[in-house]
Amino acid sequence: MRSEAVLQPGGLERFASPGKGRGLRALRRYAVGELLFSCPAYTAVLTVSERGSHCDGCFKEDWPMHKLECSAMCAFGQNWNPSETVRLTARILAKQKIHPERTQSEKLLAVKEFESHLDKLDNEKRELIQNDIAALHHFYSKHMEYPDNAALVVLFAQVNCNGFTIEDEELSHLGSAIFPDVALMNHSCCPNVIVTYKGTLAEVRAVKEIEPGEEVFTSYIDLLYPTEDRNDRLRDSYFFTCDCRECTMKEKDKEKLKIRKLSDPPSAEAVRDMIKYARNVIEEFRRAKHYKYILCLTFELLEICELSLDKMGAVFEDSNVYMLHMMYQAMGVCLYVQDWEGALRYGQKIIRPYR
Fold first, then answer.
1. What range(s) does the SET domain occupy (predicted)?
2. Low-confidence ranges of the chain (pLDDT < 70)
3. Is residue 30 part of a domain?
4. Same domain, 296 and 324
5. Is 238 part of any domain?
6. Domain residues for 154?
7. CA dihedral over 349, 351, 353, 355, signed as positive or negative
8. Are 21 and 115 in contact (CB under 8 A)?
9. Which candidate among 67, 117, 343, 345 keeps its CA 20 to 30 Å from the CA of 8?
């Protein structure tokens, strides 16, 4: 019987990680800050709001891919508005037809090997995928051939679980991409590597010393939030619950959920209610953010931030992660509308707990 471990150059190997499926393991020691490997994007799309400010030379190098969108954009004009997920999936289909052999992005893991978690999708997620399939047919039907619906469901599920958001050095969203080799790494809330981007090149660097035989872990999510929030996100997006040391011990949760020291302290029930409110308002803001930016209704976004900060501030310290989250969102809105004084005011509040 053939071993699951697949030796790779550069001191890394793919292996069967107990309880986690496929994983990546170090074969030699890596020092903090050392580059483990880099991975060019299998394919990538630039977010609509960044067109004209990024990737001037990219489409010259990637004309076969851009040609796919160019034809559709010309046909639909201003009505061309597929989501990044739909655009990314269209590019994967085109790439698989143009370049069927394994690419430099797939030294460790091929796109066709991606996990889809199809058996774990609820009706709502399946309906969203069907909406994406309808959009794919609507915007690209005259410009490409498709597999059958069942295969498209699998592909969209794979993209949802394995796609990456590309950010710049200021953590602003630039687009989405597929990095197959990076997708091989399993998650931990105590990761020993971090993924950064240089354009459409992903770099994986050690943030802790890694010894030979250790599994290489990245984080799939923002680690700012307390354990329950992190695992809610992991279950919703990746269909598992993390059992790392941080999730088991929950040592940082008390500090992350810091409550104001008042002469009449809030009851445990009041604190629970405020945490529930905070989670709901963060989700409300996330849903509102995209279309309100498009409609230039940024004042409504700032109002959500200010009202929620006033309400949460009656119970939470400014260093509470939910307060910091909404301050950061408020600062982002201020920067977007070039309210420099407002952005500075929120920025100063954000950095205070870190001093």
1. 10-221
2. 1-9, 48-67, 169-172, 290-296
3. yes
4. yes
5. no
6. 44-167
7. negative
8. yes
9. 117
